[in-house]
Write a structure and sequence with these properties.
Layout: E1 35-37, H1 39-42, E2 48-54, E3 58-59, E4 63-64, E5 70-76, E6 80-84, E7 89-93, E8 99-102, E9 108-112, E10 119-125, E11 133-134
Antiparallel strand pairs: 1-2, 2-10, 3-9, 4-11, 5-8, 5-10, 6-7, 6-9
Amino acid sequence: MTTHEGAGSARGTDRDGQQGKRVHHVRAGELDGHAALSGSTVGSQRLWMGLVENAPSSATDNHHHGASEAGIYVVSGHPVFVFHDGTREVRISAGPGDFLLVPPFVPHREENPDPDEPVVVVIARTTQEPIKVSVPELYRATEPDLRQEPASA
């Protein structure tokens, strides 16, 4: 593989002013909060990607990501992804190296039942910025979800 250094920073433009026409490199430790690749970090137009850590013995609220798909890669820990299939609550236990897909408008939550080890995941979404719509309960997904207005997280 051939690499060329000095082609411009992640947030800047290259020598020809063509930010959208080059590969961007966000180094470890240079994330903007959770975001690695987004409109504000590298000018992404349809993709958000970032690193998220869930503390031991924690759980997110029930939520969905609007019309965005979410792809998840488990880096470390043993998260549990919970959703409702229309009949019952379904719990998917995952571990390092596993991938998961959360379709648009599917209410879910992430849990980390381990009392000692954090969960670290890489998330990719098909929107420029992360969308998180909190919902009071898990329910079978319908499109579109008009119960609540989308809100950015």
